[in-house]
Amino acid sequence: MARKLAVFNMKGGVAKSTTVYNLAVGLVKFKKQRVLIVDIDPQGNASAALGIPIWKIDFQLKDVLQHKTPLEQVLVSTDSGVDVLPSNLFLAEEEIPISGRPGRELLLRKAIAPILDKYDFVLIDCPPNIGVFSINALMASDAVLIPVDMSYLGLLGVQGIERALTLVREQLEHPIEIAGVLATRYDRRNNLSKEVFDALTNHFGDKMFKSVIPESVRIREAPSHGQSIFDYDKDSVGALAYSQLVDEVYKCQ
Ligand SMILES: Nc1ncnc2c1ncn2[C@@H]1O[C@H](COP(=O)(O)OP(=O)(O)OP(=O)(O)O)[C@@H](O)[C@H]1O
Ligand SMILES: [Mg+2]
User: Where do the domains of the chain lie, and which CATH numbers do they carry?
Assistant: First the structure.
């Protein structure tokens, strides 16, 4: 049975999509895992990183959530070896209709249930908010991977994340765990990164991943070349950090 991880933080730009993409490619490349990315963010960034022409797709995740298209028709296998259920901005137009449906929180869980035995990992890329799509991602997951960028606002956002997880556990009765908190965009040249990292470690203790993702131009450049950090610059500090994360996620399966 697949391990299902939502990559979630309501704050934008903390490297959710970058982490989903590189972690997925790394799990395939280094651990020979079968990996599915579920892109439940209307920005479609994880889909685009995988080379999906998001403005030309005939079918997408929303069609599965609305029972309009069979899942097999929406699922795309990519050259990286990662499969994806893609999305684009049309997903956003469905937010209100989907929010009004009975059982709205469980649409994704039910949609992917039939294919879980085909995968070792399902990584769900969440949008930067706590709307119906993020709730669906959390309800479909065993655990949540929380990327936090090394900024003051990043630290401040932690309270909101914990509140959202409490809501899912208590109101929706889903015992979601924290797989780990990932420090991202760590810049050794400024003190703030260290201060935020120390505060996070104090708070989360052994829930912190040991891997720390550095602020890196190579990580930022890689998607524009259609490549993961491992293919774009395999000896870079960013590739090393993401390969350590791959090891950690693989081990705590
Ligand atoms: N370690 C890093 N070093 C430098 N740039 C990074 C790093 N990680 C991500 N970025 C860049 O920061 C931007 C935001 O990253 P990303 O899209 O992964 O964040 P996100 O949390 O998914 O954002 P959103 O909340 O909008 O979905 C992108 O331009 C990405 O290339
Ligand atoms: Mg994103």
Answer: 3-251 (3.40.50.300)
CB-neighbour burial class of residue 250 (10 A; exposed 0-12, middle 13-18, buried 19+) = middle
- Residue-wise DSSP of 161-221: HHHHHHHHHHTS----EEEEEEEEEE-TTSHHHHHHHHHHHHHHGGGEEEEEEEP-HHHHH
Question: What tens digit of pLDDT does each residue of 142-176 get?
Answer: 999 999 999 999 998 999 999 999 999 999 999 99
Task: Please state, in angstroms and rounded to a whole number, the distance separating the CA atoms of residues 92 and 98.
Answer: 10
- Quick check: 177 and 207 in contact, CB under 8 A? no
> 193 in ligand 1 pocket by Cβ < 6 Å?
no
Question: Which class for 248: exposed (0-12), middle (13-18), buried (19 or more C-beta within 10 A)?
Answer: middle
Q: How far apart are CA 80 and CA 160, in angstroms?
A: 34
For 9, list phi and psi in degrees, rounded to 5: -165, 130
What's the pLDDT score for residue 1?
85
Helix (H) or strand (E) holding 99: helix 95-99
Q: How far is the CA of 70 from the centre of ligand 2 (A)?
A: 25
Ligand 1 pocket test target in 7, 14, 17, 18 with most atoms within 8 Å of CB: 18
Give CA–CA dist 29/246, Å, rounded: 10
Local confidence band at 231 (pLDDT 50, 70, 90 cut-offs): very high
pLDDT tens sequence across 16-54: 999 999 999 999 999 999 999 999 999 999 999 999 999
